């Protein structure tokens, strides 16, 4: 039995019944990282000592007869935008290089309290700004399916770590699609929870009204188990929802039984490639997925959300505007990089030199866009109008959910593209989020589940099915996602069983 190949649920069961110890499981994954991460480059920092110590603590507590959580001893990779006490946290940026936080984010605290073993911090687009993990200040991450291609972004390190069998679980963040799009192009499951369902305390902020932490897993059940750990009200986050969330684990188990009778599934007309721009293989996989849902008893209806056509423009005004405000805190004074302080320069000069050296090109681009949109004379014309469009998108969702229980679309119009292929064209990069942006703007939950493989651009590469539900109805995503996953796996086998072997390591 190769411990690194087990699902999170099976790993937890093996630890609980004594088949393997938490230390053995942690070491197996550290060995896997050592064998493969030279190629994948998913991790910015591997905390082998901390992981083994946490695993040892789980084994000792279990030996002492303590009741432990359902994921105790299971390894996890953490996106480097989530603050971790005693472990470097850079948000993929030179401006925070070497920063070791004195406190834990709420997500980190909950992971630790659940006995989950954190292996290290994963690579990402700088400050979560990107769709390919090429905007990392350190190095790009490769897609385990084809090392010449991107793993998506901005949570590409977290998605690649799970797909490469380096960790059964990981945490990402999703502002405009940064969990769902990487999940789709690496063949794993990723879920963006309802905005406010998972605390943002301790997430290094990009866009405060959009940022949301969420789980990655190899299966829908694994993802649900991690979701259950990190969700819940947090008084440290003023946007945290004070009511309990739905039982996503039970929903995943129910869905796996394969019966969707009585569930209305809405196909969003505006997200089905009618205007072009979607790869044929993606659309073929989506149509097949809809047919599968119908075969499970779901009622398929078509819905129209006309304002979704403006989501891209609205998002790239709202998110940069909020980032221009949030990133003003990196002033060279309180923490992080400090450049040019030789005693002859003013604070303003030092601040300017630090930001010039510390921020990458994409971050600078978005700061400038956002600052312009918020400037005197332009606020109403740009930022104000974008917020009005956001309201119209939320209304489109509300209308659609009167006709359907969940909505579906492709997760991304494209499979993974080549490293370097789109870095010179920001608009070509931004359209990767075409399908994921509406749910982010409305604050509703959305999941990507593997829906097949497409070989139209070369090697067979994963495609994702996006499932969206009303706010605080995350359980619907898990039920439908698990039902589809079970049917797909029964017919074709799990997507990850078809991934090429990295470096000869099983």
From TrEMBL:
SUPFAM superfamilies: Amidase signature (AS) enzymes (SSF75304). The active site is at residues 79, 154, 178. Heterotrimer of A, B and C subunits. It comes from Jatrophihabitans telluris. Its EC number is 6.3.5.7. It catalyses: L-glutamyl-tRNA(Gln) + L-glutamine + ATP + H2O = L-glutaminyl-tRNA(Gln) + L-glutamate + ADP + phosphate + H(+). Residues 24-477 form the Amidase domain. This is Glutamyl-tRNA(Gln) amidotransferase subunit A. It comes from the Bacteria. It is an enzyme of class 6 (ligase). NCBIfam families: gatA (TIGR00132). Allows the formation of correctly charged Gln-tRNA(Gln) through the transamidation of misacylated Glu-tRNA(Gln) in organisms which lack glutaminyl-tRNA synthetase. The reaction takes place in the presence of glutamine and ATP through an activated gamma-phospho-Glu-tRNA(Gln). Belongs to the amidase family. GatA subfamily. Keywords: ATP-binding, Ligase, Nucleotide-binding, Protein biosynthesis.
